[in-house]
Design goal:
With about 170 residues, the chain is an alpha+beta fold. The chain is built from 4 helices and 10 strands.
Length: about 170
Amino acid sequence: MAKISQKVDRLTNSIVNRLSGDSFDTDVVELQKAELKYLKKGWKFDWKIEVQESKVYKLVIRSSPDIIQGLISIEEQKDFIFMRLVETAPHNYGSNKVYEGVLGNLVAFACKVSFEHGFYGYVAFEAKSKLVNHYILILKAKSISGTRMFIDTEAADFLVNTYFKD
């Protein structure tokens, strides 16, 4: 099972250009299989496999819907949403990233889907062990056992209200 392995750089109200500070409205829409060919080098996960096994969504800037800023795959469980994978686009990695807030936006989307399914915002995921404390601090996630974590209603409500004001 893959583990969520990227840091949330910061929580924003959309995504923010790291250099200019400009904020951009975003949309999260389902990734179509035909779009997989646009995933160039640098992606850490094999999204071609992931799209066959779960629902995959892309984060895009509303005014530039053809440029993927990040991807998330989620799976509906009995009473929560499970985040299988979350990844920022290669141009949003590291110290030269273009945009901040991508991962926070995608996690907030998973929480929003949980609320829409009547799961009270509950989202679970498997974290890399070195990031457990980071997710506790930034996302207010809680540990179930080991590296299995969850986001509860209160934390999910905060994330959804931060990113999805509509």
